[in-house]
Write a sequence for this structure.
């Protein structure tokens, strides 16, 4: 009995120590800020805020198929490239030049893009760190170099952030951009993270769905998505979003992470069809509620049809090993589904420029071995 009592005591001490360690870790700046005061009151006024958290409309199903997920991970798909992913390095001097009229884009990997639209230079979910993780020593590592080094990021007018997960909101990249005067357009609550990272309040624009803001003649619309949020845990503490960006002559829609739902058709009805769509196609699966908040490639093509977009650029694949499908499956399934709905898909290499109005030739760079 005495020995059992000692073991129990040590287990309690160990548990308390572990709990304290976790608490201390979660206080690190990388896990973001807290929600209080006027910010919290505004969050509570959102139609998406219910019972102390944000939710989808209609609400997402609960539960998570852990056993099915583990089984999927053990099926042996090739989740990382077996060859060097071709990357077209972008010259740092390119960002020193004034933004020319028109619409052009560079895919930097995962959901990160650099867009020039009607005189404004902006980025979507910029993550240029080596890992999509709160820690530099662990977590999903990039499968290829970034086409543009973090220190070369300059003269970026605006950033839109879809949600606060680590593969979409990177503290190091945000801090670097903030020092250059970049403005950040984020869902409700996400501004607390940016404030924790010393981003000036004047550069933070927190928005609810269907709100809008202007920068240098370009209008940024915060639009719905179907996902979840939380940096410390999956608590839906901040609002996720997609984004419609409209200038005088061109338009871009960025889906963020999302499941398929009628919100795509509603965005078109309210704001019109986009010229270029940046659509999430990777990190999907059948276990519920995963498919409810991470649509598959066929659903992405269907969403493009709902939006009426002219050109689809598939995102959220090829950069981080975050799913249990093969790394190249998203692009293959997207291309296979596109003809039936007459959807035009472009497949730029990392760092390759796409310019609206110019012919773009797709290359199957994801094939092994890539001929170069």
């Amino acid at each position: 009995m005495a020995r059992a009592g000692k073991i129990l005591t040590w287990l309690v001490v160990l548990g308390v120590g572990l709990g304290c360690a976790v608490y201390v870790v979660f206080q690190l700046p990388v896990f973001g800020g807290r929600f209080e005061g006027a910010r919290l009151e505004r969050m509570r006024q959102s139609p998406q805020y219910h019972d102390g958290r944000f939710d989808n409309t209609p609400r997402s199903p609960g539960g998570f198929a852990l056993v099915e997920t583990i089984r999927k991970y053990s099926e042996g798909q090739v989740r990382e490239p077996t060859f060097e992913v071709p990357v077209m390095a972008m010259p740092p001097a390119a960002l020193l030049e004034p933004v020319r009229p028109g619409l052009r884009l560079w895919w930097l990997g995962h959901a990160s893009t650099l867009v020039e639209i009607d005189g404004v230079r902006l980025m979507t979910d910029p993550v240029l760190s080596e890992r999509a993780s709160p820690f530099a020593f662990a977590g999903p590592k990039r499968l290829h170099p970034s086409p543009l080094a973090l220190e070369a990021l300059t003269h970026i007018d605006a950033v839109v952030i879809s949600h606060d997960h680590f593969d979409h909101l990177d503290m190091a990249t945000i801090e670097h951009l903030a020092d250059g005067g970049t403005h950040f357009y984020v869902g409700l609550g996400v501004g607390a993270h940016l404030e924790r990272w010393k981003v000036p309040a004047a550069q933070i624009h927190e928005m609810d769905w269907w709100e809008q803001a202007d920068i240098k003649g370009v209008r940024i619309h915060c639009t719905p998505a179907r996902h979840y949020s939380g940096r410390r845990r999956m608590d839906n503490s901040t609002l996720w979003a997609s984004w419609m960006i409209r200038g005088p002559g061109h338009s871009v829609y960025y889906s963020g992470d999302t499941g398929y739902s009628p919100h795509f058709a509603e965005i078109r009805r309210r704001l019109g069809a986009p010229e270029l769509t940046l659509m999430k196609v990777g990190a999907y699966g059948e276990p519920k509620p995963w498919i409810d908040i991470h649509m598959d490639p066929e659903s992405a093509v269907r969403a493009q049809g709902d939006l009426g977009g002219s050109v689809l650029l598939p995102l959220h694949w090829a950069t981080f090993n975050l799913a249990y499908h093969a790394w190249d499956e998203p692009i293959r399934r997207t291309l296979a589904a596109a003809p039936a709905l007459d959807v035009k898909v472009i497949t730029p290499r990392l760092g390759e420029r796409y310019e609206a109005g110019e012919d773009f030739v797709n290359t199957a760079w994801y094939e092994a071995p890539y001929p170069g």
Summary: The radius of gyration is 21 Å. Residues 15-20 have pLDDT under 50 and may be disordered.
